[in-house]
Amino acid sequence: MATRLITGANRxxxxxxxxxxxxxxxxxxxxxxxxxxxxxxxxLENKFKDISVHExxxxxxxxxxxxxxxxxxxxxDTLINNAGVFGPKPSAExxxxxxxxxxxxxxxxxxxxxxxxxxxxxxxxxxxxxKLGSKKQIINMTSQIGSFAEGAxxxxxxxxxxTALNRGMVNLASILAEEDISVHLINPGWVKTDMGGSxxxxxxxxxxxxxxxxxxxxxxxxxxxxxxxxxxVIPW
Length: 236
Ligand SMILES: NC(=O)c1ccc[n+]([C@@H]2O[C@H](COP(=O)([O-])OP(=O)(O)OC[C@H]3O[C@@H](n4cnc5c(N)ncnc54)[C@H](OP(=O)(O)O)[C@@H]3O)[C@@H](O)[C@H]2O)c1
What we know:
7 strands
């Protein structure tokens, strides 16, 4: 049995991580912003005794600190920074606030806060718990769009937030290596969630099952790398 802390656990990939890890008998700390929005997570919490749900907005650092105190001394094997925001989609919604020429700078800062800065805050806050764990893994859900080599143009707010997340976590991989804590960046693929949309090629259960297999193979030997869900290393 391993212990996993997962953010953005009420829907999409985060919910599916909770479901699959709980099915395999793991202890889960499921962080979500508003549990009343997710009958599914409430149902899982009732079904599995080893799921502990905690409400937190990951952009509220005082709230993260309070949970750090509440969960002090609990070993965490794997921290999964999954919560994320995409922002408006110019094609589907005709909303160009993350396109150059019509940029909404407040929105860009909000996206950077949730996608880039808050994952680092989560690591800082829960580092004592990760040190107590046996796997000592930090996993970040990033995106291929954050890659200079493979990312498409456009989506200024979302793409820069993921590129900066990658850079920040490479820094942490280097800093935390001396503690034997590994740090990883994973692109889950293009997945049918609220974010990925209905035309995405991957089903949520399929994508998460591949990412979980990948996580099983991650340790200090591949810390600081950016992996695709199928295990391929994505160039920066
Ligand atoms: N789906 C894809 O194709 C795809 C591709 C590449 C990368 N990713 C990455 O994978 C991760 C999960 O994506 P997804 O497709 O599951 O997205 P999703 O369906 O839109 O779900 C996003 C999750 O993040 C949570 N969240 C957003 N802002 C938050 C905040 N301030 N505090 C706490 N929770 C917050 C949401 O909670 P609420 O319900 O409260 O909003 C929700 O649980 C994201 O980091 C995303 O960038 C997804």
